[in-house]
Design goal:
- This protein is mostly helical.
- The protein has 15 helices and no strands.
- The chain has one domain (about 60-95, about 140-350).
- The termini are far apart.
- The relative contact order is 0.12.
């Protein structure tokens, strides 16, 4: 009797292994068939326009930008409080920056302003690069590793809080800032994993840049044919990363939905982007242009006329106008960029849900 039971157990083991492999194979086949059913493109085949043409009923570039601004302005107390909270956190974490860095930036921009009226735009471009470098470093180049990590977390949670507050506001609720700060951090791990996937998707472009730098240092770029082949390789690798990142950028918003998993968010974002990638790219480029232009129009005049303001009102001479302006603009930029992306995602979803 014992021998018969042992024989049955031995015979059941291959059956269990076969069943596990069969389930895995069937699951993978269903995933692939679902992907092929949702995506019209096939490798090395020309896709018919009727298969990938999709609508994207969106307001114009200026209209949608104004819509984002109006949405934030309607809830200015709520989002203004969030911007102020982030600004205070940024000052506590990193301070107002090194005075030497600010002095160099101020003097360079003042000289550029004088040379601009003389028709010399080279110094102005140099000042713009200096402003960009100073803004990205937060006028605080000597931050410790702990301060850098805390600063990144502050930006991260400010974005999550903005999405949470926007979602509840558009749903007709009246959320409080405290609720947004406490409840928006639930998808932290999922968002970090999506960010990691985006980093992996950027690897082809990084490899292309490394290859180009190595070829330039070694002198291979001096040969015409070799330089052309390297440039073609760099461009193709960059386009591959760009193709992936355009859709994954939306996944940063999708993953904040309750119960959403990172890979599901990436898959959903890819489905939304099919047939629309060029238009999505144009909207993201427009967002970057608006942010850069706003920074230039607000910060550069403040720096150029800093001495004039302090001479006009000597009582405020001790105030660090430029560092405060940069921190304030950084807070508003995080709010605007996050809100723009979230509302853009909502418009895409509404367009898909609209009857054909």
């Amino acid at each position: 009797m014992a021998k018969k039971q042992s024989i049955k157990k031995k015979n059941s083991r291959p059956l269990r292994v076969r069943t596990v492999w069969q389930k895995t194979y069937n699951s993978a086949r269903l995933r692939v068939s679902g992907l092929l059913r949702r995506r019209p493109h096939r490798s090395f085949r020309l896709t018919n326009r009727r298969d990938y043409k999709r609508s994207l009923a969106m307001p114009g570039f200026w209209s949608f930008t104004n819509y984002v601004r109006a949405t934030l302005w309607q809830n200015k107390k709520l989002f203004g409080g969030l911007a102020l909270t982030y600004a205070v956190a940024a000052i506590v974490i990193g301070g107002l920056g090194a005075q030497e860095t600010y002095s160099n930036l101020s003097s360079t921009l003042k000289e550029s302003g004088d040379e601009l009226f003389e028709g010399n735009f080279g110094a102005v471009s140099q000042a713009g690069l200096l402003l960009l470098t100073s803004v990205t470093s937060g006028l605080s180049p000597d931050l410790t590793e702990a301060q850098s990590v805390l600063g990144g977390l502050a930006v991260f949670f400010a974005g999550l809080a903005t999405i949470w507050l926007l979602r509840n506001t558009l749903a007709g609720h009246k959320p409080r800032l405290r609720d947004g700060l406490y409840n928006s951090g639930s998808p932290v791990l999922a968002t970090v994993l999506v960010g990691f996937i985006i980093t992996v998707q950027m690897l082809p472009a990084a490899i292309g840049i490394i290859v180009y730098s190595a070829a330039q240092v070694s002198g291979i770029m001096e040969t015409g044919v070799t330089a052309m082949l390297i440039w073609i390789g760099v461009i193709l690798l960059s386009l591959l990363s760009l193709y992936w990142v355009i859709s994954s950028f939306l996944a940063l918003v999708i993953v904040t939905l309750p119960g959403m998993y990172p890979l599901h968010a990436i898959r959903t974002a890819g489905d939304l982007a099919v047939g629309r990638r060029v238009r999505l790219l144009l909207r993201m480029l427009w967002l970057g242009l608006v942010v850069v232009a706003t920074w230039a129009l607000v910060i550069i005049p403040i720096i150029l006329f800093d001495d004039w303001i302090k001479q006009l009102v000597p009582a405020v001479e001790w105030l660090p106008f430029v560092p405060l302006a940069i921190i304030g603009m950084a807070s508003l930029t995080i709010l605007f960029v996050t809100s723009y992306t979230y509302l853009f995602y909502r418009k895409i979803v509404d367009d898909d849900a609209a009857p054909a």
